Amino acid sequence: DETFWFDELNEKQKPLDIYNYAEAASEAHMMGAKPVNKVSYMTKVKEEYYETIQKELKLAYTQENIYDEEEEEITESDDSIDLLLGKKKKKKGNKRKKGRNPTKDEIYEKYSIVNIAGSVIPTFNPSFRIWEYNISGINEETSINQNYQPWDEFFADLEVKIDNELSSSDPNENSMNIMKGKKGGKKKPDKTIPRRKPSEYPLGPAYVEQLFSPTKFIEYYADLDQINKDYLSLLQDGKDKNRAADEAFKFQVEYTSDDKPYSMKSLLVKDFLNVAVELCDDSTEWTTFLDRAFISSGYSDD
Amino acid sequence: NIRTNSHRKLHGRFLHITDIHPDRFYEENASIDNLCHPDNEQSKHQNNRGKDQLSSLAPRFGKAMSGCDAPVDLMEYTLKWINETLRDHIDFVIWTGDNIRHDNDRQIPRTESQIFEMNEIVSGKFRDIFENKRTADPRDFDIEIVPSLGNNDVFPHNMFSLGPTLQTREMFKIWDVFIPQEQRRWFDRGVTYLKEVIPGKLAVISINTLYLYKANPLVDNCNSKKEPGYQLLLWLGYTLEELRQRNMKVWLSGHVPPILKNFDKSCYDKFTLWTHEYRDIIVGGVYGHMNMDHFIPIDGEQARRDLETLE
Q: In angstroms, rounded to a whole number, what is the distance separating the alpha carbons of residues B191 and B59?
């Protein structure tokens, strides 16, 4: 029986799953240790994410430039405005279909940004962030719609909906039945996969400047070496521990999102993607980016 | 605030703070090699070596890149600085977890009660700073706080199952004043909730990312209804749709960042796709865990292609 149990367990846990879990668990453990290989990690981020975006956006730019040139040629060679517009439209349509590469606006739209923060624990220096966001016109927005059901009713209904959903057949079981050739009927849609955004909903504050769009951030940090030095020096000057601590301890601005060398005028998705491209193109900017990632601690992989 | 019928001025700013990791065993002048924990013989020996050895001793406010957790003083002075300098200039606080030391000292392994206790202490400090001191209502805050669960806030670390469990109940007790009352039942199941930080207009969703996290041994994927991640994504979908219907915007927040390195692939693809398809209302996502300040763009169209291929 024991052998059977073990075989079954092995079958369930493929080696790859175990490896994935072990790797993730080891990485989680390392979070509490001295930082190692963090420059390598950041280089991977650059190679796997930023450089992909760089390639996509450069292709889109090139394509759009070719486009503009074609349009200019048409303008120069034709006198008839009606004909010109007709030709332009035709050319534009053909090019878009033929190229199949997304435009830069389409690229901006398919991405979301995961903002990963510096910590208070001094893995590097302690830090936190203040985000600023657009509140202009907040009072002009339509007042709160009272017609919606109160949140308590919504969440009570939601629990019932989820329980009903969970008690119906499993999408995986359906797939298994189909694979095994059993009659399982039509596979139910997996409700954890969203439908495409209906086109009538405009892009939100992450993509187009509007109410609640993030506009700027301020990264604060505590220079621990300096603080500890100042503290000891104040103690030597005869101050008591509490007073010395009060005077020595302070956070200061490490940088803001609009600081050079890769200043961001706003914090829309396109601004982050453009910074990603800049970081690939400019080694000085990348060095600054790394310094900020490690909260001005001077960390390197050596 | 509809509940308290009070008004406050908006500043257009919020604070995101994460991974405080206060360590009550951190001791000034203990050996850094001993994780800044007291080791009587070693500490005595090193203290006798004189000032030239000061660099290997734990300073009062912590040492960057030493591998030590945060001294309690670092937490205290950080929150004090925030209270004195920023409190009156922000609208809400997103606080993304890990409020207890790492489990990295074999001589003093963490216990479940220590984890709850420290979480309670830190939670109390946030409450003290941001509560409305002019009222006796413990749920009335000048500045709303939205905490989320870190992988070190659970015992054993990384491991967290679907509730109701002792741990989900404890977390509810600790965060009682931060969690909207109508969501306590769901919180007890999933430690995920929604908070309106500007009523009727802007919300923050606190996501229990441990249900999507590769390093949680109780998570296999997000495809089966038995999986906690599947249930979380169901909740997320319905909730995002409700926010869309109400014409509200929302920030996503959580401890473990939703990137491929951290999330199970099916959980990553589905989560990324929700983020993408609700791009009309999602303002952004803020996370902690990795201790490094950076950003990662995630591709919603790629996530859909990968899911369709799998299908």
A: 36
**Which run of H or of E encompasses B202?**
strand B202-207
d(CA B235, CA B212): 13
ipTM for the complex shown: 0.95
* Residue B95 confidence (pLDDT) above 70: yes
Question: Rounded to an integer, what distance in angstroms lies between the CA atom of residue B253 and that of residue B270?
Answer: 16
Query: What is the chain A residue with the closest CA to B307?
Result: A193
Q: What is the distance between the alpha carbons of residues B254 and B213, in angstroms, rounded to a whole number?
A: 11
Give the C-alpha separation, B249 to A116, whole Å: 20
CB B272 within 8 A of CB B300: yes
- Sheet of B282-287: strand order equals B193-198, B202-207, B249-254, B282-287, A111-116, B294-299
Q: Which residues of chain A have pLDDT under 50?
A: 1-2, 79-81, 83-85, 87-95
Q: Would the pLDDT of B45 be above 60?
A: no
User: B265-277 and B300-310 are packed helices; what angle lies between their axes, rounded to 10 degrees?
Assistant: 130
A149 has a chain B CB within 8 A of its CB: no
Please say whether the beta carbons of A134 and A210 come within 8 A. yes
> Other C-beta atoms within 10 Å of B295: how many?
22
Q: Which two tokens stand for residue B203?
A: 């919300």
Cβ contact A31–B75 (<8 Å): no
Minimal Cβ distance to B281: which of A161, A204, A245: A204
Question: What are the start-end ranges of the H helices in A121-190?
Answer: 151-167, 171-179
Q: Could you give the CA distance from residue A250 to residue B86 in angstroms, rounded to a whole number?
A: 12
The pLDDT assigned to A203 comes to: 98
